């Protein structure tokens, strides 16, 4: 059957055939006929997408109760229904799209238009404790896969009339609803327009998850460093919105994008705010230190053992020589094998069920490490170095940033094995240049260090006391940036 632009030209049986053909004779497609005076009302819906009690109580009961005064005008029948979300339409494509979203389509064989009424049965889980971002202090709940629930949580946390939301849709084949959420007057209007333009220009069939959307709208999709912060914590979204960031919610995804983000945002946690300022500053500084050590520790070991052994203290060089005396591999190959083994243990622990994964990580690490040393496969000192490097990458609150650090370690390790300290310096220079050129939603990735902004540095690298936050002269949020940013580091 051909596609009809208007259903008003079709009879009852033709309408049934139209919906059957369009929905490929789905067994869930249901037709219900209600004789009314000289006409017949036809109810069309997907059985597994509607709430039967809502359909019966708020749709059928009011219609049956008003049969005596019924006429064929759908515009009048619309106001008899006890649901507020209704649409008058005669377009078959619009009807099918909404039926697949849980609407019931009501049509009269004497009418020229039909009514779409929302009786959807939304399947969603309740509010639960966050799994990927664990906190000691602060709220423990996480977002769910329901977009409306997530937006309501944010509105309960931010009771401001300046909290703005913009609705967007992406996907040619399977449309997905996306919401931009920001606080007007604090968020940078240029950043809001930039992110909205990026999303509206997407030409994709569908968006599977928030992480997929992040990859599509990033300024540099080839960079290993994430340019949008992903979180499942409502309090982190609230904290970020009040600092001028923009939140991007995707329907059917429990994760939220926050941008424009800086490198330092990925090492911050709302737990830093809940703690005393000196404790929060210490822990935040520890994260930066462990990130640096995680990248450099293993490459530095390989470079020193291979080229700069004169840097090793004389008291340590004897034990180090004894430890490596039975190892048949070169330092770079030995380090590579251990790094790969650590990554395999981490990946296996993440993919297995929780209890089995924890056991696998602990037992596997101890057994393999001890067996590798006894077999002369590796030295015990390198095991300590690789373990410290792995622990350093795990301290990042963001899983994506922790993964980026682990990946960055491998090219630095190769350069350290080939050219020693000079190779490590070259690798660090390349990383620094890349970070200087990188941007998030058009804003510098290393802000406020580059371009330097002393007013904001104090609450980025460290966690300043609360009384200093109250007197902070910055009223437009952290990411307001009036100057023109150029990606050329020479300017």
From TrEMBL:
Q: Where in the cell is it found?
A: Cell membrane; Membrane
Task: Give the principal location in a single coarse category.
Answer: membrane
Q: Which InterPro entries match?
A: Spore_Ger, UPF0353/GerABKA_families
Taxonomically, the superkingdom here is Bacteria
Q: Transmembrane segments in this chain: where?
A: 286-307, 379-400, 412-436
Annotated membrane topology is:
Multi-pass membrane protein
- Pfam families with a match to the protein in the record: GerA
Keywords linked to the UniProt accession: Membrane, Transmembrane, Transmembrane helix
What does the similarity note say? Belongs to the GerABKA family.
Q: Extract the PANTHER family matched here.
A: LEUCINE ZIPPER PROTEIN 4, SPORE GERMINATION PROTEIN
- What is the protein's given name? Spore germination protein
What's the source species for this entry?
Answer: Sutcliffiella tianshenii
